[in-house]
Amino acid sequence: MSDKEKLLDFEKPILELETRIQELRSAAREGGVESLFKEISELEVKLVEAQRELTERLTAWQRTQLARHALRPGAFDLATRIFDDILELHGDRSFGDDAAINVSMANLKGREVLLLGHIKGRETNERVKHNFGMAHPEGYRKVIRLIEFAESFKKPVISLIDTPGAYPGIGAEERGQAWVIADAIEKFMKLEVPTISVVVGEGGSGGALAVGVADRVYMLENAIYSVISPEGCASILFRDAIRAPEAAAAMKITARHAESLGVIDGIIEEPPGGAHRDWDDTAKRLSERLISSLEEISKMNTNERLAKRYEKFRKIGIFHEAES
Hints:
Largest sheet: 8 strands, mixed
CATH class of the largest domain: Alpha Beta
Structural class: alpha/beta
Number of domains: 2
Shape: globular
CATH architecture of the largest domain: Alpha-Beta Complex
Number of helices: 14
CATH topology of the largest domain: 2-enoyl-CoA Hydratase, Chain A, domain 1
Order of helices and strands: HHHHEEEHHEHHEHEEHHHEHH
Radius of gyration: 21 Å
Helix content: 40-55%
């Protein structure tokens, strides 16, 4: 499948403008037709405006589609553009290694950190190898083992989240999936080093929350964060997965919703048209936020940081009491 065939329906008007601009540029170069330059400039202005309007009017379901876009950069597509000296660490020292979640030592602008992130894979064989980014219990036990290692050496922890959720298979449940997710949440809450989590694609259920408890939690502009997928929610509530767009709107899963509800601390804007349009620019924006946030968090003493982290998560949620 070509890159053009991977584009979503609502992206096609932008593609048409881009194609027309490329055609005019080729004609201008080959024929030296200066009169085309004005038309090219006008179309470039239209393109920027179309990208801006598209970003502003996207529905929750359309943002879900962008979060899952076939061309969207994954956690380690971004990480390799931000971090240096990435050294992967393996195994939970109990059952095995889990390819769905990568844990590495890495260097962020001269500062050594523990970096962890989900890997979905892109081609079919990669997706099978990495189990579509759905970690087993041994994946989260690997995380727990290594964040404790990071704490002992006073290394900050950075999580890049992109998963539909933890793997729900029988074997995973038999090996304590729910228990280890709860254990990971507790360990992250008590971790004494600075922590940052960023939802870069899908933030699905406990699989995301297990590595999402941090001093600062961010989302990329078109990422989603939810307790269940829109399709799963529609199947349960409406008995029809086709109503996923309706469920997505009701679930408030976008970055804007999460910020307004206090679930996250901020939104990292994506390049015009989405992260898949420019991986390098997306990585640059993410890098700037990681560096500035890490500097800010590191200025706090340990007790202050732990207290603020605890308070932040205790305050999540908005409700209204019914009148008696």
